[in-house]
Amino acid sequence: MTSRGIDSTDSPRTYHILGVPLRSGSWTPGNEQDPQAYRDARLFEALEAANVSVSDEGDLAVPSYLPHHTVPPIRNWPGPRIVWDHLRERLTPFLQQPGHVPLLIGCDCSVVVGSALALAQSGAHDLHVVYVDGDVDDVQAIGERCQSAAYMALWLLTEASPFRDGAPVPPSNVHVVGNSKPAERPQSGIRTTSLEEVRRLGARAVAERVRSAIPATADVLLHFDVDVLDFREMPAMYFPHHDGLTLDEGRALFETFARDPRVRVIELAEYASVRDFDRSGARALTDMIVQGLATR
What we know:
Layout: E1 14-19, H1 34-40, H2 43-49, E2 53-59, H3 79-95, E3 100-107, H4 111-121, E4 127-132, H5 153-158, E5 174-179, E6 191-194, H6 195-201, H7 203-212, E7 219-225, H8 247-258, E8 263-269, H9 280-293
Parallel strand pairs: 1-2, 1-3, 3-8, 4-5, 4-7, 5-6, 7-8
Helix pairs in contact: 3-4, 6-7, 7-8, 8-9
């Protein structure tokens, strides 16, 4: 694999929009209709108008037989694992083509595991995850409580466990940005840049610092959780954070990370169409995506 230095000129990319209507990984229902809200906001047409090479791949075919329960330790298990396996099969053909980047919409945070497995299967090496989120999502599975796979996404990603196959991503390769809540496991080795630090240093400066810490030859998975934003500016989220980034700060982070030539997969997670009555949230997120992916 050739080196992709962070300051090199990016080659043309084609983005494959894929809806992931996954309910199993989240705590509450509703995600099933989220990908359609982006399409209603004309995401595909807006990207085309911005001269972005894009293909709408429809939605991942999520099986109808997935279980729904609150049995510890993981809610709805093995539903999330089943979807990860389907996602891996769907993403791998795109990832095996240079310059083709899946853009996942309407998903919950647990899909980061499926995307990472797909990247590994496609031959990616030294995978780094940039995880823009209001939470660190590092809760460990224990038998005394039931938690959603979304809330333990980074534990599932970075720790060997019977809940996943393949090698875990080293915790030091995970970079959480914008968390307003502290990590559940502060000694895990996951790198965090808190909301307070983003405000103090500036969103673009933080993004550049994170990018500089990632090796030039690495492959990057960009995960952007809508709940990193302030609820007053983006009420259409599943887990509201009343202290979060402004939309301008969120756009700055997304744009700086998304334009990095090492990015192989982009995920937009935890947008809640059921709370977006006038679709203003979907339009704002569409604008953010277009601004981030449009060529200069």
